[in-house]
């Protein structure tokens, strides 16, 4: 997307911020914050309500958002894969291939910066990226509104008290995505309610949190990510410079947002370019110490694990799968 276009959209979006009246009682919706999570960030000018979620969900699965009506958000973000893509690089309209692996979508209400390079500050703004990107939906948002507004006007008037337009489309999609919350894995139940883990999973947990492996130094906190940008030594001269695309700083080359490890069992392939196919490949990568990139984190030092250790570590990672989230009917069309 052209920066001038992006700034124009940003100004339009900011210009329309103002405090809203509360929704009617029957439309109120209480976000369920899992135990151990901090309070989420909900913008003052886009409260969550049932009708807004419904509107956003319809849009998320609507292929008419793309120029040739073949691609919806869910064409790259599959619900059964925690809303991530199973292809290393996502395929958009006319078979065009993008340059990054589509990440899972959950706990986004807590994410300070979106995209693997942190280039987008809010979910409302993020919506413009896939719609206009030539390798994703390649659409003109105003034309999309024109094409679909008759189907959305009534719900829009109820949910946002205005006819369906760009303001409503971006806010409703952001709202639906804020309800994609995952915090009920077996590991959560072990921590919160004293649920049981197998001996192998417990050994894997100790490895994950061990000083020798450093996993939990970056994959830390309630969402198993520090939300920082780090170079984990994946490659030496990758054309995708990551965080440096936004900051233009040489010390940010090859740094990407630390991925959450929740639901990692179903989000393969892994890393920003989908270059690692399995969790075994990921552990072999970290064990090898990675490529000697100038910006590689000092925490990526390499280590050696027995086959038993490796399968224990993977068994632990799989305790982070939240089946209630993956099978939640409210997240399906
Ligand atoms: C053609 C595939 C494709 C389509 C269609 C698509 N996305 Fe994505 N999405 C991606 C990729 C690839 C990324 C990672 C982009 C990056 O990091 O630069 C991404 C990133 C995101 C993120 C940032 C998540 C994070 O962890 O930072 C959000 C939110 C998102 N998409 C929502 C949507 C919504 C909403 C739609 C529909 C309007 C949509 N996507 C359509 C491929 C797609
Ligand atoms: C220096 C910080 C750092 C350390 C230490 C670290 N990681 Fe990562 N990890 C990252 C970053 C950054 C990414 C995302 C890289 C990318 O997008 O290319 C990532 C991605 C991953 C992914 C892929 C997630 C996905 O959805 O693509 C897995 C799995 C993973 N790490 C597991 C581990 C394990 C297991 C350890 C310990 C052996 C570990 N990490 C140690 C920073 C780190």
* Number of helices in the DSSP assignment: 13
Q: On the 0-100 scale, what is the average pLDDT?
A: 94
Helix and strand composition category: mainly alpha
Q: List the ions, cofactors and other small molecules found in this model.
A: heme C
Radius of gyration: 21 Å
Shape: globular
- Outline the low-pLDDT stretches: none
In words, what does this structure look like?
This protein is 35% helix and 1% strand. The chain has 13 helices and two strands; from the N terminus they run H-H-H-H-H-H-H-H-H-E-H-E-H-H-H. The mean pLDDT is 94. The two termini are 29 Å apart. A two-stranded antiparallel ribbon has the order 1-2. The protein folds into two domains: 179 residues, Cytochrome c-like domain (Cytochrome Bc1 Complex, Chain D, domain 2, Orthogonal Bundle); 141 residues, Cytochrome c-like domain (Cytochrome Bc1 Complex, Chain D, domain 2, Orthogonal Bundle), CATH 1.10.760. The chain is mainly alpha-helical and 333 residues long. The protein binds heme C (2 copies). The site of one heme C has 26 residues, from helix 3, helix 4 and helix 6.
Features:
Cytochrome Bc1 Complex, Chain D, domain 2; 1% strand; 333 residues; binds heme C; 13 helices; mainly alpha; globular; 2 domains
Concise description?
The protein is mainly α. It is built from 13 helices and two strands, in the order H-H-H-H-H-H-H-H-H-E-H-E-H-H-H. It has a two-stranded antiparallel sheet.
